[in-house]
Design goal:
Layout lengths: L1 E5 L5 H15 L16 H10 L2 E6 L2 E9 L20 E9 L8 H15 L4 E7 L3 H9 L3 E10 L3 E11 L24
Parallel strand pairs: 4-5
Antiparallel strand pairs: 1-2, 2-3, 3-4, 5-7, 6-7
């Protein structure tokens, strides 16, 4: 049985282990968000997000199988990008650190997490979800495109521990806001695991 919900204080130790193991696993993968446990993500960061109510988990038979952060916090470089549908900061959600554990990869859990946040955006009365992905992180690119996000363009962005990198910006508009066309056609990538920041 799979349950997606907000993390509680009782979940923090398990979530930290989950991300710590994910960071170690990602070091061996050809495509990676280049996370470094303790720098990003970190125990302090996850605790803060759990306290704020923005840390979400997918539990499979009670075990953390996926996690993500969903809030209004964005990289300051978002403001330098010419989004075709200008929105107030509190008018959209930003997805961070979406990760599906290696044991649960390829089972559609990433898509379920995306579907959950899309439903959550509608429930909260948001107009969009935005996120950024390290360019070249093909599993993440495929996941978001398959989930209905549009690749809006690229932008140099500062990532913790990585310096300035090329980040791809994605957006999903709620159905009532879809009269605005994107600046660019989505790239023809065709689905999984990580959202970078």
């Amino acid at each position: 049985m799979t349950e997606i919900r907000k993390a509680t204080p009782a979940d923090e130790a398990a979530v930290c282990r989950f991300y710590q193991e994910a960071c170690a696993d990602l070091e061996t993968q050809p495509y990676s968000p280049r996370w470094s446990w303790g720098l990003y993500p970190s125990e302090e960061h996850l605790h803060r997000k759990q306290t704020e109510g923005s840390l979400y988990l997918a539990l499979v038979d009670g075990e953390v199988a996926a996690a993500m952060i969903l809030d209004h916090t964005r990289n300051e470089r978002y403001d330098a990008f010419a989004w075709p549908c200008p929105l107030a900061e509190d008018g959209y959600l930003v997805l961070h650190t979406l990760c599906v554990g290696a044991r649960w990869g390829g089972q559609g859990l990433g898509k379920r997490m995306c579907r959950f946040i899309q439903e959550e955006a509608v429930r909260q009365g948001m107009k969009a979800i935005r996120l950024d992905v390290l360019k070249g992180n093909l599993p993440a690119e495929r996941l978001y495109l398959a989930a209905g996000f549009t690749l809006m363009g690229t932008l140099p962005m500062e990532y913790s521990g990585c310096g300035m990198v090329e980040a791809e910006l994605y957006e999903w508009l709620v159905p009532s806001c879809r009269s605005v066309s994107p600046l660019r056609e989505p790239a023809d990538h065709g689905i999984l695991m990580q959202n970078d920041r």
